[in-house]
Design brief:
rod-shaped, Alpha-Beta Plaits, 3 domains, TIM Barrel, transmembrane, eight-stranded mixed β-barrel, alpha/beta, 19% strand, Rev_trsase/Diguanyl_cyclase, transmembrane helix, single chain, five-stranded mixed sheet
Amino acid sequence: MKLTQILTRKLTGFWLLSLAAVAFIFLLTALVSFTQLTYKFQQQKVSEIESMLVHHYEHDSNSALSSWLPSILTAYKASKFQLLENGQPIYEYQTDDAGKGHVTYESVLIEERHLKLSMTLPQPFQMYDLSWYELLILSGGIISVAFFVRFGHQWLSVQLVGIEDLAARSKLILNNEYEQALAEKGHGKPRMINRALTHMLLELDDAQKQRARFDQFIRSNTFLDPETGIGNRLFLKNRLDALSNARGMMAPGVMFLLEMEDLDLLQQELADESIEALLLQTINDINQILDTQANSIFARRSYNQFAIVVPQISLKDAEKLAVKLLKVCLSQALPATQNSDDFYHIGVAYFKVGETKEQLLDESERALRAAQFQGASGWFMYDKGAVDEEFAKGSVRWRSFLEYALVNRRLVVFSQPVVDSDMETHHLEISSRIRDNQDNLIRATLYIPMAIKCGLTPQFERQVIETVLFDLLSDRSDTTTRYSVNLSLDTLLSRAFIRWLKTTLLEYRHLTSRLIFEVNEDIVVHHREQLKDRLDMIRKMGASLCVDRVGQEVVSTQYIKECHFDLIKLHRSIVRQIHLRQENQLFVRSLIGGLYRTDVQVFADGIESFEEWQTLKILGVSAGQGSIFSDPIEEV
């Protein structure tokens, strides 16, 4: 851009200088020519007088000079005249106009008699006054020159605008802003180069979309069941690993095992199309129920067995969900066979924090067998008498407690470092807990689902942001540390929160660059159109955007570029034991390859071992967080 601007200025400057020089030379030549012509004309007049005097001297007496010479001298506007013979004046003429600006001519008329002439005349160009007509012609010439100079400058500037447009598009391409470069086609010249750039950008955009589709294809064939489109056995294993750590499950929840009795025998009696239609209809109806359950997992374990995991749900709600699932299954149109009333069986196992996933699978299988022993389609819950007491609180008690916590600011902020490959802290991720009246801390996995249910999520997340801005970022001893804050769907869709956030970011715009806002991948994918303007507003305010839990679902990664995210965080199900799982490594390689030549950084969440961290660094992950570096620390 700067080089083309310099070139434009030089060319236009050269154009103006050239035209100005031509005009100046033209006027200077005219002036010199005019001066020379007047001098030559005056010299001719003097020569005529000399000829007349020589002729007169040879034929007439000197006394006759006074009869005709004064009138001629007056006509020539002579101010002084002398005719000398042998040094003695024989005729003199003088007026009162003699002075500066006059020219004196001296010459010898007759050498033998030493006859000399001396005559003083005014400057020749002073004898001529320009008339209005001549002034009009001169002014018209000057104006015409100025007009053509101005016209030439504008014409050249217009011609060079095309080069500026090409330079602007080239700069956008070098800055990896391909979408903006494609949108600003402009009027670049040469037009062939401009069309070539547009063609290449279109090809690149299509290639990026193809890459995103290829990534989705890889993940689909790795983690999805090809017949039903839901998760496969490997997908279920990864997601259960993500919900647990070395100490067991990290949040309470429920697991359903749905088995279709004698589905293989039914397939032998009916056509494959009928069985496929039955499966797809049942799965679609179940998915509609699970849409209301955040972070739910639906996968196929075997040909006729399906697993459903719903974290952060109470025992009472788990029982209601089991009833809904059985009702959906019984509403399917089954063929009238001998065992049509004993076709669907659901085993339910409720788990709490600290239990192992192996224990969960064992309990859910026992519950499934118990449901099958009942002799009819139904469900059975494995009851081990271990229900989280805090999670069993009623909604009214929870709402009162949460409102009390908001009013009295009982929210406690924790931070966990995100470490780069040089073991330097890239930023701190903020999480929160609530301190009750007994000074106990209630974890986020317990109170956040109830806050969502009570519609108080925007208030809690607003209080977290206020804590970060007023307490952490305002610390003058630390001016470099960045903090990331998670935003939920309810918060981003709240108009009141967005208005408050916009006003706050404007007020603290000197701190905005140190803020990172994280949004879950499933929220962005399913509500992209609703959130795009709000995410753009946050980015334009100067804050960074991060999408976390990437890889939790099998979706296209094209949204990363469309929403202009700065960071992405891999879901812990991808990170867990990645050094032993080639399919997860393939996904990470494909994801990073699709983000090549962009400024998007790839981070990892839930790193618990040195082998995982080493493998992630080899794959190209920039930074990570997890228990291997530090557990969340309370901010005082």
